Amino acid sequence: MKFAQYRPHPWHGLDAGREPPLRVNAYIEITPYDLIKYEVDKASGYLRVDRPQRTSSQPPSLYGFVPRTYCGERIAALCPGADRGDGDPLDICVISERPIQRSEIIVPARVVGGLQLLDRGEADDKVIAVLEADFVWGALKDVAELPPILVERLQHYFTTYKLVPGTPAQITVQEVYGPEHAERVVNAALEDYEALRRS
Fold it and tell me: Could you identify which of 94, 112, 189, 197 might form a hypothetical disulfide with 69, taking C-beta atoms 3.0 to 4.6 angstroms apart as the criterion?
């Protein structure tokens, strides 16, 4: 029997998933019920408060990252106009029919597409996935099969969640992509992580 004697770091100590790039683990930092932006502290692995949300915008899905990924030069190469990756693990949004109100959980997810975000010169992709074995969404294989309103809400959230009233938007969604490009994005993030680990 394998087990961790101590709590593993969620970025470095958890597996990326059963069959990446399309079947991955998502470590959840934020739920649709959170009005605070939480992020994993890179040193300790515990959740920390990043900032209260300035506006009424709430995440429309579970939101976290894929362990053992990194957004570096390979991710940047896939995003036109990007000077670099954002230097964080690859973000993932997981859609679930049943409400999940807890964070700091590992969610088995199947990747169906993603949003190509450009944030002040940084590639900041948001992979979109469905909860594996979900009774409503579990059979989906392509983001195009989701109701358009769900994708629209994700786009709106990520273009406004850092917005300061009276200042121009700094984030653009350049493209909504399907599973083929999402596979390239996840593979690039896995390779960027290996390069980071070796450096």
Answer: 189
Burial letters for 84-103: b for 16+ Cβ neighbours within 10 Å, e otherwise?
ebbebbbbbbbbbeeebeeb
Q: Please, are residues 71 and 178 in contact by the beta-carbon 8 Å criterion? A: no
Question: Do 38 and 52 touch, CB atoms closer than 8 A?
Answer: no
The per-residue pLDDT of the chain, averaged, comes to 94
Cα–Cα dist 71/84, whole Å? 8
Q: Please say whether the beta carbons of 60 and 153 come within 8 A.
A: yes
Type of residue found at 92: I
- Provide the b/e sequence for 106-145 (b: ≥16 CB within 10 Å): ebebbbbbbbbbbeeebbbbbbbbbbbebeebeebeebee
Interval 161-199: pLDDT, tens:
887 777 877 899 999 999 999 999 999 999 999 999 998
Residues in the chain: 199
Q: What domains are defined for the chain?
A: 23-198 (3.90.80.10)
Residue type, 192: D
